[in-house]
Structures are given as C-alpha cells and as structure tokens.
Amino acid sequence: MKIKTLALALGLSLPSMAAIASPEVLMVLTNQDSLGPGGEATGYWLEELAVPYLYLNGKGSDITLASIDGGKAPVDPRSLDNVAPELSNFLKTHQVELSSTTAISELTDKHYDAVILVGGHGTMWDFRQSKTLASLVSEQWQQGATIAAVCHGVSGLLEASINGKKLIENKRLTGFSNSEEAILKLTQVVPYALETALVNTGANYTQGANYTPYIVEDGRLITGQNPMSSKPMVEALWQQIKE
C-alpha cells in the first residue's frame, strides 16, 4: 500500500489515511471434505488458516474468506488435535463465516494486496482442478498482488498462467513434500504427488527438513512447506504489503 503517496495526493494526514488504507487480503479455502469418494474426512488445515488470519487481523488487514464453490469450508478433523487455545477459539468465533464463504467466481472484479492459498489435503481435489482459481491467481498476480500459499495450498499455483507460460515456471518455491506425504501414508490416496507436480511444471522446488518451518520467497511469490511454516509465511507476506 503506497499510503504516503496517496495521502499526499489527497491532502490527508498519514494517520487518517492509514485508517482507511488497510491491506486487503483474500484467503482461499477448499470445499473438499473427504480424501476421495468415500474416503476419510478432510478439508483445510486449521493452523494454516488461523495463524495467518489472526496475524493479519491483528495488523488491521481487511480479510475475505472465500472457497472454490462458496458455502461451507470444512476443517480437517486431524488438524484439531492438540491445537493451541487461540486456534480453537478462532474456529469457534468464525463458524458462521466459515459456513458461508464467498465463491471465488464472485471475486473476479476485485483487486487484493495479497492472496493466500490455505492448505489442507482437501485442496488436492479442488484447487488444481479449478479453472476459476487459476484465472484468479493469474489476474491478481498481473495486478501486482503478493501470492502466498502454504503446504498443499501450493497446488493452487499449478495451473496459473501468464501469457501462456505457467506462473511457477522457473520460480523458486516449496510445498508439502513427497517425504512428508509418505510419513502420513497418503501417497497412494492423494490424486497426485504435489512435489512431483511442481517440479514437472517447471518450478525450482526446494524443501527443508520434514515438518519443520521452511518458506521460500521469490519476489511476490511466497510459499511455505507445511503447517509449521504458516507463521513465517505470513510474516514474510506482511513485510511486502504493510506499506
């Protein structure tokens, strides 16, 4: 946000301008609630939503929660085990909002300072497969937004293209690794291996140790490897959009 420049142009003081120039952030969630037809329950991963949301909300950001089809965004029940009290409280206080998310098809004429693709295994069934999400990511990128994704949410970058070239081609990034998927014994359950798909799409993929915080910044593209990467991911994002 170019607060100072805009403030001078409008003849406003910086405090008053800051009050109306909060960064606008779109957080995209999955609608998929099972690991394939008849599979175990899944959805978005709580930490990957709540940690960035609470951080950005605390900074005064204007946050929109959306999903592929709109309506209810299911939480992965596995992400509710042994969570911090503030994350449990977040889920309780945002139940209405999470049950009535905006469909991304309704946001095509909006501009955001940042877009966050929230992870969770559900995204492996509806992020890459959504042409609307690919178009949204591409359009927001071209408009200058910072694009961030964490864990399986990185799957939402796979089909985004700019002038016929995949957005992530030759970009440095990370995402949930094949080794982490194997630890969960879900390699044969997910429709494709995320790490492999990223490499095959032309990305320069790197990873840290399994289940430890690891992020990669490549200009306006910020990616986190796993749930533990949610906090450093959003901290890096904030540094880009706070002014």
Would you kindly provide a written description of the structure presented here, covering whatever features stand out?
By secondary structure, this protein is an alpha/beta fold. The chain has ten helices and eleven strands. A seven-stranded mixed beta sheet has the order 3-2-1-4-5-11-10. A two-stranded antiparallel sheet has the order 6-7. The protein has a two-stranded parallel sheet with strand order 8-9. Strand 6 and strand 7 form a beta hairpin. Residues 2-10 and 14-19 have low confidence and may be disordered.
User: Would you report the number of β strands?
Assistant: 11
The major β-sheet equals:
7 strands, mixed
Mean pLDDT: 93
Q: Approximately how much helix is present in the residues? A: 25-40%
Q: Shape from CA axes?
A: globular
Q: Order of helices and strands, N to C?
A: HHEHEHHEEHHEEEEHHEEEH
As laid out across the biggest beta sheet, the strand order is 3-2-1-4-5-11-10
Percent strand? 15-25%
Number of helices: 10
Q: Termini separation (Å)?
A: 4 Å
Low-confidence parts lasting 5 or more residues at pLDDT below 50? 2-10, 14-19
Structural class: alpha/beta
Radius of gyration: 17 Å
Show the helix and strand layout.
Elements: H1 3-10, H2 14-20, E1 24-29, H3 46-58, E2 62-67, H4 85-93, H5 95-99, E3 102-103, E4 114-117, H6 123-126, H7 131-142, E5 146-150, E6 161-162, E7 165-166, E8 172-173, H8 178-183, H9 194-200, E9 204-205, E10 215-218, E11 221-224, H10 230-241
Parallel strand pairs: 1-2, 1-4, 2-3, 4-5, 5-11, 8-9
Antiparallel strand pairs: 6-7, 10-11
Helix pairs in contact: 1-2, 3-10
